[in-house]
Q: What sequence folds into this?
């Protein structure tokens, strides 16, 4: 189970072990801030359905849960909560590789190749009941109203309103006959890019820095274009929306944080960029001389060391959760060259990226 916990940590997910015989469920890694055990209750309420499929992705209002049946009565569940994370880079790639991640979980537990079956996408309501898929045909007015509600929820940081607006949007057929009938993936990408453009303009009009907004837009578009498929298209819409929600929410509160926390937050939010101390000082409106002392006093490492570590942590996630090439990952994380990326990865982990990707399953691998 240690390797499954490690995989969940890399993917920023909570991992739950579910026993369909005893109806018991327990978190295996650090339990998220879920004092009401909402996720566990959600799973137990639908345990019979979970036992019917080898791999399943549960599309919920707050994120998604990937389940893998590892024995006749045991199910491993990875829970991704979009409202608690701003790491859209990894979640988008995870959503594009649901089957491979499910097979990784199976192999890590059983030590043998996983069944080659498809991931079943299931949509649930917030009342924990299975919803029959009954999408309405495209209605421009309904779509515009849902999109307007989403923008308002993002701008004013209204969590419940965003959940409700996304639930309404999920019933509108926003992809299909209107887009690229002969190339469905292109239609999905065009829809996502158009949607991101609307959100981007909205946060700029609210007051989010133009340069940062367009950087966010360009990063997301690049990730979309690099994705070869979307197993659950609406979950990508949902994840992107929650990311914008978190970006604005974090931007609103960071001005009141201590300098070391603002630095840490900035690095994590701009991990795909090439960052210098001058850049950080300018963006945070702080003295360059104060940056490293404030950060090292709190965390024990320099800002440059932290940037390298966070980038390599992100690279680990991409190596496991996606089929991107080393060049793709190097470019996505703004390493100057692929050679420098490989060198940095090995300095920090002791392994090459290629070895890490090929041998992550090994029981003796300790990272």
A:
């Amino acid at each position: 189970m240690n390797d499954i916990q490690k995989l969940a940590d890399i993917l920023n997910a909570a991992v739950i072990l579910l026993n369909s015989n005893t109806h018991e469920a327990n978190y295996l890694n650090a339990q998220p801030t879920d004092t009401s055990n909402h996720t566990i209750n959600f799973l137990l309420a639908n345990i019979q359905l979970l036992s019917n499929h080898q791999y399943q992705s549960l599309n919920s209002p707050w994120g998604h849960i990937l389940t893998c049946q590892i024995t006749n009565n045991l199910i491993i569940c990875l829970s991704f909560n979009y409202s608690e994370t701003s790491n859209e880079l990894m979640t988008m790639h995870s959503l594009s590789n649901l089957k491979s991640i499910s097979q990784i979980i199976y192999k890590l537990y059983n030590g043998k190749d996983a069944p080659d079956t498809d991931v079943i996408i299931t949509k649930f309501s917030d009342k924990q009941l299975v919803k029959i898929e009954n999408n309405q045909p495209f209605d421009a007015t309904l779509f515009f109203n849902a999109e307007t509600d989403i923008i308002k929820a993002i701008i004013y940081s209204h969590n419940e309103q965003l959940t409700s607006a996304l639930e309404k949007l999920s019933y509108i057929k926003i992809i299909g006959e209107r887009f690229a009938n002969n190339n469905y993936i292109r239609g999905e990408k065009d829809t996502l890019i158009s949607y991101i453009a609307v959100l981007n303009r909205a946060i700029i009009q609210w007051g989010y820095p133009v340069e940062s907004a367009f950087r966010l837009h360009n990063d997301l578009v690049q990730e979309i274009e690099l994705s070869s498929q979307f197993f659950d298209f609406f979950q990508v819409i949902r994840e992107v929306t929650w990311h914008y929600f978190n970006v604005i929410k974090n931007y609103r509160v960071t001005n009141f944080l201590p300098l070391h926390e603002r630095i840490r937050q900035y690095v994590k939010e701009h991990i795909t960029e090439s960052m210098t101390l001058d850049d950080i000082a300018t963006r945070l409106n702080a003295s360059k001389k104060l940056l490293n002392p404030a950060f090292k006093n709190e965390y024990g490492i320099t800002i440059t060391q932290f940037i390298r570590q966070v980038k390599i942590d992100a690279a680990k996630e991409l190596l496991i959760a996606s089929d991107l090439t080393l060049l793709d990952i190097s470019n996505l994380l703004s390493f100057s060259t692929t050679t420098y990326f490989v060198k940095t990865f090995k300095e920090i982990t002791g392994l090459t990226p290629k070895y890490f990707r090929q041998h992550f399953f090994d029981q003796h691998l300790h990272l």
Notes: The chain has 17 helices and six strands. Confidence is low (pLDDT under 50) at residues 126-134, 363-367. The longest strand covers residues 74-81.
